Amino acid sequence: MDSGKYKKEFIDYLSNLISEKRRAKFDEVLNYRTRHLTIVLEDLYQPHNASAILRSCDIFGIQDIHVIENRNVYTVNRDIALGSPKWLNVYKYKDAENNTLECINALKAKGYRIVATSPHNTDCTIEELPIDKPTALLFGTELTGISDTVREHADEFVKIPMFGFTESFNISVSAALCLNTLTNKLHKSDIQFHLSDLEKEELLLTWLKNTIRKVDLIEKNFYANKMNEYQNE
Question: pLDDT below 50 — which residues of the chain?
Fold first, then answer.
């Protein structure tokens, strides 16, 4: 039996186990989810920042977050993240000789332009940044910013305009400001930034599984029943 054949039936089955309001919310959020923009975090060490950025990504509809762990382990503070990780796809790069380069190369292979944030490099401001191509916005570690590897391999650099004495924003604030600017621009554009129907289906199934208690047992019983029906045909 091809279990993939019954995926939509299983989604409908699980949807009946949650409220109509919850299911409608899933559809609403899916309609704004995007992979046209993605976030890359290089060596963050403060759980507060890591968690706040995840929360902002969820709020602004960014589905994928790429986490580079060279020296620091990426840790999430649940009280700040407020459950956002279960709605997102977080990809970690931590086993290569150069995790930063591995991440950059993987994203470039998927067609992403690597845009590094830095107050010292001024290719353009965040308002001026074109988003016609898939864009990976890369943030460096809290104290020293982006690494030399990023400086060497990034396609562009961008900064947030500042008019005070302080040199830079807190990294989680920077991420939120950038995402606010870019997603507003994206939603007003003619760019096809939405997920495909297949991506929406896969994501909806994941969210349902993350929402419903004892879903593994429910899934096992569902496909066991389908197997019995298949054998009795």
Answer: 1
pLDDT, residue 225, reads 84
pTM, 2 dp = 0.90
Q: What is the DSSP letter of 195?
A: P
Q: Which residues contact 72 (CB under 8 A, 6 or more apart)?
A: 43, 44, 45, 141
What number does CATH give the domain 34-187?
3.40.1280.10
CATH 3.40.1280.10 in the chain, residue ranges: 34-187
Report pLDDT for 1: 46
Q: Which residues pair with 145 in a beta bridge?
A: 141
Average pLDDT taken over every residue of the chain: 89
Residue 137 CB neighbour total at 10 angstroms = 25
Q: How far apart are CA 231 and CA 213, in angstroms?
A: 29
